[in-house]
TrEMBL record:
Role this protein plays: Hydrolyzes ribosome-free peptidyl-tRNAs (with 1 or more amino acids incorporated), which drop off the ribosome during protein synthesis, or as a result of ribosome stalling.
Family: Belongs to the PTH family.
Site entry (Stabilizes the basic form of H active site to accept a proton), positions: D95
Active site: H23 (proton acceptor)
Catalytic activity from the UniProt record: an N-acyl-L-alpha-aminoacyl-tRNA + H2O = an N-acyl-L-amino acid + a tRNA + H(+)
EC number assigned by the record: 3.1.1.29
InterPro entries: Pept_tRNA_hydro, Pept_tRNA_hydro_CS, Pept_tRNA_hydro_sf
Name of the featured protein: Peptidyl-tRNA hydrolase
Taxon lineage: Bacteria, Bacillati, Actinomycetota, Actinomycetes, Streptosporangiales
Name of the coding gene: pth
A GO BP entry: rescue of stalled ribosome
Naturally occurring in which organism (per UniProt): Actinomadura craniellae
Claim: Cytoplasm is one of the keywords in the record: yes
Site (Discriminates between blocked and unblocked aminoacyl-tRNA): N13
GO cellular component terms listed in the entry, alphabetical order: cytoplasm
Length: 191
């Protein structure tokens, strides 16, 4: 792979029991991006499924770790090493509790905000300077435990717009690739 490749990682938990969970928003976005790139996920020795292809005119490696969310760092570090992709060309797509449902926010670096997947990645990479596409899932109702909330499927009302929001998050990834973070933020934060 050439040196200007990008690594785009979607976070989630493996297996059909988790497929519709809010915590799997990252996997949903990666599935949409793989369809856009015309690829199918294949097992990679880094404990992830990958698609190598092109998006927005750039070579990309799309990846879904096959580990549970809180162990995402190992596969991400393995992929970064294998494909020799630096932090500034690594994009992690993940669910975010502190953003309203369906809102997309983009940033580079920062803390993990209690997100176990991000914590694992930052620890494994020894670097928090990767890009993030944050998919808003909203706060849990009442006093529901946030951990229980993200492990529940999107509600029937939420599912009505889920495909649209997944597509918008995919657009955000492509905009980061084609125009850079600041320009992509101007587009997606205005929504």
């Amino acid at each position: 792979m050439d040196t200007d490749a990008w690594l785009v990682v979607g976070l989630g938990n493996p297996g059909p029991a988790y497929a519709g969970n809010r915590h799997n928003a990252g996997f949903m976005v990666l599935d949409a991006l793989a369809a856009r790139a015309g690829g199918r996920f294949k097992a990679h020795r880094s404990r992830a499924e990958v698609v190598e292809g092109r998006l927005a005119g750039h070579r990309v490696v799309l990846a879904k770790p096959r580990t549970y969310m809180n162990e995402s760092g190992g596969p991400v570090a393995g992929l970064r090493g294998f494909y020799k992709v630096p932090a500034e060309r690594t994009i992690v797509v993940h669910d975010e509790l502190d953003i309203p449902y369906g809102a997309i926010r983009l940033k580079q670096g920062g803390g993990d905000n209690g997100h176990n997947g991000l914590r694992s990645i930052t620890r494994s990479l020894g670097d928090k300077n990767y890009l993030r596409v944050r998919f808003g899932v909203g706060r849990p109702p009442g006093r529901m435990d946030p951990a229980a909330f993200v492990l529940r499927d999107f509600s029937p009302a939420e599912r009505k717009e889920l495909e649209l929001f997944v597509d918008q998050a995919g657009d955000a990834v492509e905009d980061v690739l084609s125009t850079g973070l600041a320009a992509a933020q101007n587009v997606h934060h205005a929504r």
